[in-house]
Predict the 3D structure of the following.
Amino acid sequence: MKIDIKHLAKLSNLRFEESEAEKLEREMGDIIGMVEKMPDISVTDLKPDPNNRMILREDEVKSSLPRTEMLKNVPQSQAGCIVVPKVVE
Amino acid sequence: MELYNKSAHELSSMLEKKEISSLELTESVFKRIDEKEPEIEAYITLSKDKAIETAKKIDEKRVKGKTLSNIAGIPTGIKDNIVTKNLPTTCASKMLYNFVPPYNATVMDKLESAGVIVTGKLNMDEFAMGSSTENSYFKKTKNPCDITRVPGGSSGGSAAAVAAGECIFALGSDTGGSIRQPASYCGIVGLKPTYSSVSRYGLIAFASSLDQIGPMAKNTKDVAMLYDAICGYDSMDSTSANRSYHNHFNAIENNVKGLRIGIPKEYFGDGVNPLIKEKVLAAAKLYEQNGATLIDISLPSTEYALSAYYIISSAEASSNLARFDGVKYGYRSENYSTLAEMYEMTRSEGFGAEVKRRIMLGTFVLSSGYFDAYYKRGKLLQNMITDEFNEAFKKCDVILTPTSPNTAFKIGEKVGNPLEMYASDICTVTVNIAGLPAISLPCGFDNENLPIGMQLIAPKFGEQVLFNTANSYEEIVG
């Protein structure tokens, strides 16, 4: 099978050098070769587990972390805002 | 015997009787860290000052006669993918090299209110992806049993620190064997709890439907003590089981009379080192001599488990790790001009090779045209594996297998071969896929004196039978 590393890298927001991409294609080919040994299963529908229903929290207003705390880990900030490259002209 | 060598439950009663102080104990552990750390390299971050300060506070409370939990004052190491307020949490990745969490994981809130002493943050494979701790961005942890060998992974720092006496017990996390395999390589005990019994809030996600935080210690009783402190419902984790838990430590019983132990033939196949099979079956024999019944069972889908595991875990990882983009926290590349370039360069420079490989694999199995062939088939296989376990547990109370098909391998031995590295998880991944609890405990040594681990698996929320069965073995062999 042909694995389109360039396309997958774009979807993953990753960049690979030419030599890296070749190695990766080989390694992923091996892994997918292993994975393809899975049996075909006649059952085709996936149902949620009735014993483990997801419980959602009530939609309540609660106190959250102060902005100054949140900004401590930001790589670049200015005037209480996160700085990123310009996205609109 | 030095304090750092003692077990947590012994230390707990010594502390309670005021035979020792938490400060003495904490100082003993940090002295040991000073001696062993240059060689073992188990820690990414140490938290000595805070640890000493907390130990003094706990001692004060004890002197004043306050009622404390049974783990209060005990030095505990934390795997570095569990967020700790004001203490750096890196996931052993360049991506989070400078991340200082503004909040605690739920397990950390629980441990802090129980009064444990946090010694520091333990090394691991980057984002918990790996089986040898060699994928850490920062350092390579050595196995205290033989420093030319890996401690296992991904919780290799936790296992090595416990085995070397650099903490009394530790938290790890287990997505496909990451607590049990390093526990077996380092000769300690490790529990992968039932999925949903320990909150994942604040555990940096790898594969959310498989990840679980769990305790690692020198023996089963210590593991039970730490498990009691961290299990429980948490509204901050939408997958958390809404139920109550009894105290497992106090309920440990040493009796295997009438216990039905299932021996699945698929776990004793050609891929498993013969000496490991021999030792695990010898343990089974010992149980039988003490009143247990051995039952041959079959779990036929086991051979496909590794495939299902790599599909599901990589798919979830590719989604979970999309959040690391250099905007709000962690590493940001300096080589960009546009926003798209900033994302791409940050991720390409911040993630290591194994993490990128899994993101790419996950993106592949989820991408249009391949979803049914891979991801859906993986999920269906997951149901099949779960059903087989449910069937098996009609015939037996607990299942006994090897933890790993091999003992600790040499550092660098498997780095170039991902498939060979993945195969060391072959006995453990099924448990995560089925959401079951399992414990690994030592059951002897190989010809090179490296520890061998055996694994006990129970039905969901069957931690008590695991503790009883594991503790009974420890009592029998002495």
Q: What stands out?
A: Chain B touches chain A through 63 residues (CB under 8 Å). Chain B has 15 helices and eleven strands.
